[in-house]
């Protein structure tokens, strides 16, 4: 895999095609590969690195994206005219690509400075969370958080990262035995006991479907010194509840402020992988570089959480091949089946085939398109599949079933326990998600330069040939450790995260 | 209809049953009705005001709630043992109860002080709205609003009620040709051109499904001096967009501040009717009193907008009987059919029959239960049925198809052009909804007293016998005029409305 000063990006050593960084004319010399272009190859399109026989598998990202539909000469343009998915059999095999991660020796494992919590998990931030059970208590929740964020009262608590309100548009007029209710309670509980949340206050109206006592009981939370609850109706209205909430937060702040960072193994990092506002570069720069970092984290004993089921739809067999057990593979296929039903019931369309624009950009098959998204999860064995907002308990590379929509996906990943987030973007997504720091990875240099105050790292240097995927991947890994230890990201400096808590709303609003 | 100092509440002059305000023992004398209880009648339950023959219709709210299943003596308890729906035919007739409203003579029509807008509509408040097309621009939108609400910069603009951000959890990863997208764009457009919004700024990220240029074009909005638009990606990131947004608001404030209240006819009022956190008193105090005020407004030439389809479900024929035309009746039934499908597709349950608790509280039939909700729309002829967030253009009493869930229902009503809101509550809902003032009507005195800072008017005096439905209804009407003219409600004093914009999310989140 070499990209420096080349006109080509070869995404994996086993690949028999590479991607043209620039438009190539016939005869263009590609020195380090010892080849010259035989045909015109548009920017972002594939070129054969050697002769490929008819029927032979085409490899990109080290994985099969289809087969040659005729003999392809070395240095020829590879696209719809000579590449298609012809052998569906291969991709349906469970676990055939699953290789146990080669963990680094204990002594070589990376560390960071984190907040060790009483349940053994480690936080990368130290927040007090105000969780609203229903939209009706959103204003009260924000008013309490605003008091602390504007009064200067937090100045006396330097080890507290903030008091943040997590409010939403749901919580009532929903089926109290349905999937949507289960998702909402799981999400709220996941935030309440999140390792980045040292103390929490849950506030309801009182008469909502999403009753706080039921959340506490069914989710095995423990109300006490670090989890307080109240309702507006029982407290006697808006002003009294804001005052009572401020008092409750005040009683929790000293213990929260007493928490200190200490040296912790990188194996305590649970990294959410996300992309939003993707472009034609996502699959060749930021995503594979993040995949490299993800694999590194797994080898340090940590956890990486891929998500966004619609992004892998139609190519889920890429992941089942990497599944550690047939049960893990089957659980993923079961979730895919659920999605087919969900979208059909909602009269939608889950087509993930390359669009006309994708094809013009050089993507030929659905496997190739999905690989561009999946590659941010690296190559590691798939250890587990989780439902939305389910607590992530396995280490290594895992998958969580979420929509692709950024705030909904990330809310689920955070609820599952992710304490770090890397977010690749091509068009320029600027958001962030309390209580977890979000590292923004730009796929291209022009966007990085235009939105420098919002982007933490430029993966566009892979596209320009200044850096390799491995070099940028290592930078991402180092950045994850630094940010986990307290370095603030762009989205934290821009104070994102007060409006991006969006639990997946499934089911009818009644 | 007389309730003062009585133990009974008779909801309509034509009724042959009344509701016991207190538990009645046999022999309890009910002087002004000239009767004495024959059997025990629990509080909230019905008592026969005269002998009722077997098969005869039982009338409450002046409408049929079922038929006597056996002969009922005067002063007997009326409930499941002697009342049921036996004649389904009656309720299915279209338009039979439709009577054209008796408008007051022009000279006697009420007026208020409102902001006359260039399109002829009249505002009751004068807001600048910041509308976010997608969750990704929520933080930027709130940051711009926060600047004006905390910097003191609005002090120079005393005729501006506020700069408010309307943000939400949707806007992307949705079907761009689906119902959910149509609802979202209609809702945003309804707020952008709302008579209470004198100027608006729409902010997007840039790459979202819910494109601002498409909203402007399909919804026939006109970008210009009172409607500015921008995206974070085109503007160059978070900080630059906040600065550009602040500048854009600054350029719009002088013209907004130049708007003045003037005397306007009450016919320009479009009153949203809503209930939330209902209790056993809702149907006998606040809701019928609001219905009285609603009928008054209609007679003054104004508009009242009933909503919350699930609350009338199973008894929609109560409204089709009042429909002005068969087309209006049929449109309501079509929406009910849509709801059956919506809930079935979402694996929910739309059962609106009286629950065990409802029955214990004295509600016998689904017609009676639905009438308790419908009664806040008074008795007037049903002039039109609107889909969610559709612009209300007919005057008089109309219906909008919305969920029962308060923030979603009210968001739709406001998008439709409602410039006033009356909200009945028994348990104590405290919320409010910018840019429209919300008058909170308490159904019972204990809650009113416990939450006095959140409740604008106590309809519990009907339950205690201190006031009649007509007296409280008149108070509500007078309060609507006062608030429309600028008097601030409890929820405005408590600064609700920055987190309660919740467009109905229909369809899959992908
Ligand atoms: Ca995404
Ligand atoms: Ca920065
Ligand atoms: Ca903040
Ligand atoms: Ca409601
Ligand atoms: Ca405010």
UniProtKB/TrEMBL annotation, chains A, B:
**Record's Pfam families?**
GD_AH_C, GD_AH_second, SAF
Q: Where is the SAF domain?
A: 15-84
Q: Decide whether keyword Lyase is in the record.
A: yes
- Reading the lineage from the top rank, the first entry is Bacteria
Signal peptide positions are none
Keyword Zinc-finger assigned? no
Which InterPro entries has this protein been placed in? GD_AH_C, GD_AH_second, SAF, SAF_UxaA/GarD, UxaA_altronate/galactarate_dh
Give UniProt keywords alphabetically: Lyase
Query: What molecular functions are annotated in GO for this chain?
Result: lyase activity
Which family does the similarity line name? Belongs to the UxaA family.
Which protein, by its recorded name, is this?
Altronate dehydratase
